[in-house]
Amino acid sequence: MTTDTHVDSTQSVTRTPAQHALTEHLRLTAAGQTDEWAKLFAPDGLLEFPFAPAGMPRTVQGHEALVAHMANFPKTFDVEFVDVVFHETVDPLLAIAEFRSEGTAVPTGKPYNQEVVSIVHTNDEGLVTHFLDYWNPLIAIEALTPPEDAPGAEPGVSFGN
Prior knowledge:
Strand order of the largest sheet: 1-4-5-6-7-2-3
Mean pLDDT: 88
Oligomer: single chain
């Protein structure tokens, strides 16, 4: 039987190393603290976007590449992550979570609401070795595309590095 752990900020919850890394990922990403966020990863840590659209890398690996990739995130999205549910695993170095992001695409002011599933692998020190991020790039593209009647509106969008 699978047990789910709902994240509730009013309760003290003991998390596995991988759950802790994923929780910190959400906190630091929402706060725009990209340098601190990159420190969650092992030196050769891998961030993978299986559904990456054209113009965005499918994988980002290593501290410098991770910092460069996330550098513009705070200028691009203002989000908070809600309804986090961890699915229990037998491996404390593996976390699987579902959550939602609620927010705004900063350049357009359009809503940016996303449902995400993330799978995080950590090493014995609790550093992320592999982070798989399953989100819908079409939602990001729509949120970042200016309305057709906006002054200077240009079709298309790029994000990531």
